[in-house]
Specification:
alpha+beta, three-stranded antiparallel beta sheet, 3 strands, globular
Length: 139
């Protein structure tokens, strides 16, 4: 077993994390609505799933997808940069509203993580190249 997977499992259990597909309409054809419950908070997150990881119905993969999406917003300098990174249309006002909403709640999500820094535990290289823990999870 990969230590990253064990870390995610332990974190999910400790924080009572559940993730499920949202029933709302997507704000963009490239994004999938997801509902995240962590600690006592419930958040609507929209994620890009370029590798169809949500099709595995694996809570660990779902965790990685959702928190990678949140980190992408958190690390972007502004809305336009985020749209460019995610190949999204910056003229979509629903995306701008979503971006603003998530930016306002990220600090609350951060509090659930050690050092108040969101971590999805796997490297971006493993994620993109489908190696290590990601290859194991996608089998």
């Amino acid at each position: 077993m990969y230590p990253e997977i064990t870390d995610i499992q332990n974190f999910i259990a400790a924080r009572g994390i559940t993730i499920w597909l949202g029933k709302g309409i997507s704000i963009d054809k490239k994004l999938i609505p997801i509902v995240l419950k962590i600690d006592n908070g419930i958040y609507n997150i929209h994620v890009a799933d370029e590798y169809d990881d949500l099709d595995y119905y694996n809570p660990i993969l779902n965790f990685i997808i959702v928190f990678r999406a949140i980190v992408a917003i958190n690390e972007s300098s502004d809305f336009l940069e985020w749209c460019k990174q995610e190949d999204l249309d910056p003229n979509n006002y629903k995306l701008l509203d979503y971006y603003k909403d998530i930016c306002n709640v990220i600090s609350g999500i951060n509090l659930s993580f050690p050092d108040h820094e969101i971590d999805y535990f796997v490297s971006d290289l493993d994620f993109q190249l489908n190696t290590g823990a990601m290859q194991f999870l996608r089998r």
